[in-house]
Amino acid sequence: MIYYVPEDGQTGDVSVGGKMNLDPKEWTSFSITKHDAGETIDVLNESIVPFSEALEAAKEFFHSHAQERPRSIEWREL
Q1: Which whole-number Å values give the CA distances from 13 to 2, 21, 33, 35, in the listed order?
Q2: 3-state DSSP call for residue 11?
Q3: Which of the chain's termini has less CB crowding within 10 Å, N or C?
């Protein structure tokens, strides 16, 4: 899942997935710490994109002059 927030105070957009063979109405938990018993974040499966697509989007964002929303993936407005 990737968030894009164009400016402070705006809700932004979230990536649209669907390529991971996950039930789009279910949630997946991801660890956000190094420890097994650490904090997690729950993500709606419909927003999960493959790592290769997330990496491509990150590269596109990094190389854009105005930090524009990457066009290499699909987005849903929050």
Answers
A1: 8, 22, 24, 29
A2: coil
A3: C
pLDDT of residue 7: 84
Determine the 3-state secondary structure of 55 from DSSP. Answer: helix
Residue by residue, what is the 3-state secondary structure of 12-41? CEEECCCCCCCCCCCEEEEECCCCCCCCEE
CB 57 within 8 A of CB 47: no
Partners of 4 in the β-ladder: 13
- The pLDDT tens digits for 13-49 are 999 998 889 999 999 999 888 776 778 999 999 999 9
Residues with Cβ within 8 Å of residue 42, at least 6 apart in sequence: 27, 28, 29, 30
17 closest CA partner among 42, 59, 41, 45: 45
Q: Residue 58: enclosing H or E segment and its boundaries? A: helix 51-63
